[in-house]
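My convention is simple: the sequence line spells out the residues, with the fold written below as integer tokens. I include a record here:
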Amino acid sequence: MSLLQERVAEARESIKLKPAEFARQLGVSRSALSQIEDGTTKSLALKTALNIQALTGYRAEWLRDGSLPKKGKSAIEPAGEYLGVRRGTIRLSAGASGFAVDYENHDAPPIFFRKEWFSKNDFIPEKLIALIVQGNSMEPGLCDGDTVVVNTADQKPMDGEVFAINYEGELLIKRLRRDAGEWWISSDNPDKRRYQDKKCDEHVFVIGRIVYKGSERI
């Protein structure tokens, strides 16, 4: 089994970043990265592993303990004129901008879209994840049990758009709203006593924009 420092160095070198720039993008000090890559540090914090995963595609689990595979399987399964978006769940760590994706087993089929849908919208299939909506905070537009597709390549906040968000380690699907120079996450449910708007701060991270919804509600 490879050593921790070898795994982290491999991930860094895969995106051709020098240690100083890699450390900056991870949000760690240059000395902290040096201690990881020279073997002084024997364990990798989940937050750092998730950030490396977000930057490089190497799985947080493999980075931390060598658990295979190194990278998640491709989200694409070609089927004629269609491409599939795999269903999964997102695991988060409070205060971490990165995330890990757990894909469901082969019994859960992907959602298929025409290839033209990807090209027309400049979507990268590997960056799309299909999630199940939980809760009623986004009713009537999104209901509990609906399916949404998250484009993790699109993390730029946009006023009025719906995003998957890491809110202090909790996955939320909310509408971003700009008011008085500040960003807020807002629920569509009109019951504001239960679903109050929350101001974004340095602990709130955008995972990706919602680009599709599927529902059995009529």
